[in-house]
């Protein structure tokens, strides 16, 4: 009756000690005790079982290219863009595919099975688009990879940028991107938002736009994006990424802006690791950290999801493909340390991101896809604290990755021989 049963699992909504039965690539049962004998069993032993992690904002064409052709000495956004401009003419399809596949291997071990990647379309060769379309096909059995046509050097600013982006869409890239704050003028940025939303509406495609990734409190492109979303009937199909300018905006203006964004049903994608690394670089002290107003946006019922953005590339020399690392940082920067806050943060790397990406069949309910992760933690708050090992990663009801529990051995007189970080340090409030 069942291909696999996960026994004694804790669920993200707080339920404890449930069995999850998987059959035919779907979740077939969630019960206190399933008596059937399956083909395979996993004893979660009171650990958290979650839907897979989702990354709605990434740059897979640049990932793992750290040091090519040189390092980002200043660590700034603008040097990263300049460095990518140096690397781009040297890119080959083979190297792009190899790095992307290696990253996908890492992602699977981290329980990250859904990724949306921006694809630079500013080079008219479009080798990035060719490579990532091939990667998308190769990884389809285990990762759903969505691709965004992204005019890195500006839709209008880059020579041939308009034509290159449309060609990328013709090749099969399915989401319209943009970067209005990188156009030459504020007016050109607003024109690009209007043109790209019109293009998306004409083609029936979603929009995912880098927007106001700046410390400038007068950057107004998210306002324009929200207005054009309403104008072109794109409600719910548009994402605004970064939005770091909101960190610096006047509170009264933000109160108006958030209402407009809510009317347009904008999906919001902060990128905590990158945002706090790259913003505020012109400040002395006090120094801004640039992450957008997560708590206020969530309070307005906007769908907020977090992206990893970069891993070991010209913009960010760190990163691990672990969305719990992203969420862990968000807790600190957004100062959302309460239990309810942490549950919302966990949602931002799971169910909220799935909504941003328009995923079907995602979740932990009967009838959902049998895509699950067993973590070495008791619940979502512990998962966010510990960033624990993914003990089992399951796709369509089959285990596709596993990692041994993190257990430390001790050689101390009178002390335990070993400690399990995910079991021995569960707070009393979580112990049964």
Automatic annotation (TrEMBL):
Amidohydrolase domain segment(s): 40-400
This protein's name: CodA cytosine deaminase
Stored Pfam families: Amidohydro_3
Domain of life: Bacteria
Keyword annotations: Hydrolase, Metal-binding, Plasmid
Biological process per Gene Ontology, one example term: cytosine catabolic process
Record-listed E.C. numbers: 3.5.4.1
Stored PANTHER family: CYTOSINE DEAMINASE
Main EC class the enzyme belongs to: hydrolase
């Amino acid at each position: 009756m069942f291909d696999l049963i996960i026994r004694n699992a804790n669920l993200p909504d707080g339920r404890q000690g449930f069995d999850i039965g998987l059959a035919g690539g779907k979740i077939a049962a969630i019960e206190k005790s399933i008596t059937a004998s399956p083909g395979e069993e996993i004893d979660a032993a009171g650990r958290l079982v979650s839907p897979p992690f989702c990354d709605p904002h990434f740059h897979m064409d640049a990932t793992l290219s750290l040091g090519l052709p040189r390092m980002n000495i200043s660590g700034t956004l603008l040097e990263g863009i300049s460095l990518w401009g140096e690397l781009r003419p040297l890119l080959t399809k083979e190297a792009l595919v190899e790095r992307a596949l290696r990253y996908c291997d890492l992602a699977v071990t981290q329980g990250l099975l859904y990724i949306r990647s921006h694809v630079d379309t500013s080079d008219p060769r479009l080798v990035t688009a060719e490579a990532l379309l091939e990667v998308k096909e190769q990884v389809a059995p285990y990762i759903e990879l969505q691709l965004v046509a992204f005019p890195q050097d500006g839709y209008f600013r880059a020579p041939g940028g308009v034509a290159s982006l449309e060609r990328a869409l013709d090749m099969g890239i399915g989401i319209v991107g943009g970067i209005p704050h990188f156009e030459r003028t504020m007016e050109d940025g607003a024109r690009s938002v209007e043109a790209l939303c019109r293009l998306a509406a004409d083609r029936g495609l979603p929009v995912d736009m880098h927007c106001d990734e700046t410390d400038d409190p007068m950057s107004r492109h998210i306002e324009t994006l929200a207005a054009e979303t309403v104008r072109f009937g794109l409600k719910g199909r548009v994402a605004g990424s970064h939005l770091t300018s909101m960190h610096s905006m006047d509170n009264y203006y933000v109160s108006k802006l958030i209402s407009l964004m809510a009317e347009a049903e904008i999906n919001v994608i902060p990128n905590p690791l990158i945002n706090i690394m790259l913003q505020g670089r012109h400040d002395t002290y006090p120094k801004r950290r640039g992450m957008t107003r997560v708590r206020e946006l969530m309070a307005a019922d906007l769908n907020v999801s977090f992206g990893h953005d970069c891993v070991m590339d010209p913009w960010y020399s760190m990163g691990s493909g672990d969305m719990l690392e992203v969420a862990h940082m968000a807790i600190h920067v957004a100062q959302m340390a309460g239990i309810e806050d942490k549950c919302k943060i966990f949602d931002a790397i799971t169910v909220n991101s799935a909504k941003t990406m328009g995923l079907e069949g995602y979740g932990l309910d009967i009838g959902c896809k049998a895509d699950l992760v067993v973590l070495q933690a008791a619940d979502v708050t512990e998962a966010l604290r510990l960033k624990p090992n993914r003990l089992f990663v399951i796709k369509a009801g089959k285990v596709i990755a596993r990692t041994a529990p993190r257990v430390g051995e001790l050689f101390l007189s009178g002390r335990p021989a070993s400690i399990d970080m995910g079991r021995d340090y569960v707070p009393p409030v979580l112990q049964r």
